[in-house]
Every structure is written in structure tokens, then in C-alpha cells.
TrEMBL record:
This is ABC transporter permease. It comes from the Bacteria. It is found in: Cell inner membrane; Cell membrane. GO terms for cellular component: plasma membrane. InterPro entries: MetI-like, MetI-like_sf. Residues 54-246 form the ABC transmembrane type-1 domain. GO terms for biological process: transmembrane transport.
């Protein structure tokens, strides 16, 4: 009986997620009256703005993941090793992006770094991209930190560190060659969530006037009927494809380490 309920819950969960996707795919094929066609997909894929905005968001997502790893892995490791009493404080700080709306964060950026301030980052495209990158890293911080902290909880961090130090390893080597490879699975989990957040984010990119994928989807959805459904399907497939590629790379890296 328990197995029946488990299968029933699994089927209901799958239907809950798959039925909207199937409906979106079916609607995206109805651009030509009375028959199914790929006209909406051709229209989206032939639009230069689609390639530009999606490429921009993918690049920003990868940079966000790199920045998140550089910030979170050493911090979570040091808290586990030296500052366990501050762990509740760090966890509270990393949860703040879930409470503070993105629009508040981006307005703070605009207020502090506008062209009349001491550091006018919004006056150049590179400075605005940097602000957007920091904003994305802030939004992804709760997911990346939780994933890495969970990965570190499965390790004896203190014993590993003492063993590495006894062999003459420095802090950079310990983190890069010992800690990071052991939490790579947790890092990839946080990276998946970070990637999905950046691809669909609208508020920060729109207010900072960056050519990101989120504002493009909103603009297309406000002016077209079938193309937005096709764009949603394409974005879903491309996002999962990129995540699968990242997972494949991490597995290949793990295989190479075990072979060594």
C-alpha cells in the first residue's frame, strides 16, 4: 500500500510539472491557423535580439557562478573551521536576499553608484555589468551558501586541514586542491540554481538597462502571442541543456581526479 501511495505522489508531481509544459508546447505550435507548425520557433530563433540577450545572460550566469564559488567556498570553510559560533549569523546574512526584494537592492545600487557619486559605475557599460553581476551573486547567495555548507557538513574539515598542513600545504592549496574538489557536487547544485535565477531574472537587468534575457522575454510577451510560448520552451530546453553540460563537465573532472 505504501508503494502505491509513493507512485501516486510521483505521478501527481510529474503531472503538476509536465502538464503546463505540454500545454505551452502545444500552444506554441498553433501560430499557423488550423495546423501545427514551427513558425513561432523560426520567428524567435531568427531574431538577433534573442541570440544577443540569451548569450549575455549565459555569460553573466557563468560569471555569477564563479564569483559565488570564490566568495562562498572560502567563507563557509573558514566558518566551519575557525568560527563555528558565527555560523548562525552568517546563515542569517545569507538569507537576507530572500527577504529584501531585488528592486530594493537595485535601487540602492543606482543611488550609490550613479553618475553623480564618487564611484559612478552606472556611467559605463562595464561598470553597470559589474553592478548587475554583484546583484546576481547576491540573489544566488542563499542557494549557493546552503549547498556548500551542506557539502562541508559531510566532511571532517578540521582533520583534513590539519593533515594537509602537516604536509606543508598552504591555505590556497588546501581550499583549491582539497576542499573544493570534495564539495564539487554541492557547488554544482548551487550552480544550477544560480544559473536558473540569472536566466530568468528581470528586475535588476531592466532597471540597470542591460540586454539580458529576462527583459527580452517580458518585451516579447507584451507584444506577441505565440512567440512567447515558443521562447519559454526554448529557454527551458536551453537552460536544462546548459545545466546538463555543466554536470557532464563536473563528472569528467571527478573521473580524472580519481584516475590520478
Amino acid at each position: 500500500m505504501r508503494r502505491v501511495w509513493s507512485w501516486a505522489a510521483l505521478i501527481l508531481g510529474a503531472l503538476y510539472f509536465l502538464l503546463p509544459l505540454i500545454g505551452t508546447v502545444e500552444f506554441s505550435l498553433r501560430m499557423r491557423r488550423g495546423e501545427y507548425s514551427l513558425d513561432a520557433y523560426r520567428s524567435v530563433l531568427s531574431d538577433p535580439a534573442f541570440r544577443q540577450t540569451f548569450g549575455y545572460s549565459v555569460m553573466m550566469a557563468l560569471l555569477t557562478i564563479v564569483l559565488g564559488v570564490l566568495l562562498v567556498v572560502p567563507t563557509a570553510y573558514w566558518v566551519r573551521l575557525r568560527l563555528p559560533r558565527l555560523r548562525p549569523v552568517i546563515e542569517f546574512i545569507t538569507l537576507l536576499p530572500l527577504v529584501i526584494p531585488a528592486i530594493v537592492v537595485v535601487f540602492g545600487y543606482i543611488r550609490l553608484y550613479n553618475t553623480s557619486s564618487i564611484l559612478p559605475l552606472t556611467g559605463t557599460a562595464g561598470g553597470t555589468n559589474l553592478l548587475l553581476l554583484c546583484g546576481y551573486a547576491t540573489l544566488a547567495l542563499p542557494y549557493m551558501y546552503r549547498a556548500v555548507d551542506t557539502g562541508l557538513s559531510t566532511m571532517d574539515v578540521r582533520s583534513l586541514t590539519e593533515a594537509a598542513q602537516s604536509l606543508g600545504a598552504g591555505w590556497a592549496r588546501i581550499i583549491g586542491r582539497l576542499i573544493l574538489p570534495n564539495v564539487l557536487g554541492a557547488v554544482m547544485s548551487g550552480a544550477f540554481l544560480s544559473f536558473a535565477i540569472v536566466i530568468g531574472e528581470f528586475t535588476m537587468a531592466a532597471l540597470l538597462n542591460r540586454p539580458a534575457f529576462g527583459p527580452y522575454m517580458q518585451l516579447l510577451g507584451a507584444n506577441r502571442a505565440y512567440e512567447p510560448a515558443a521562447l519559454a520552451v526554448i529557454a527551458f530546453a536551453a537552460t536544462w541543456g546548459c545545466m546538463g553540460l555543466m554536470q557532464l563537465i563536473s563528472r569528467l573532472a571527478g573521473v580524472r581526479r580519481t584516475q590520478r
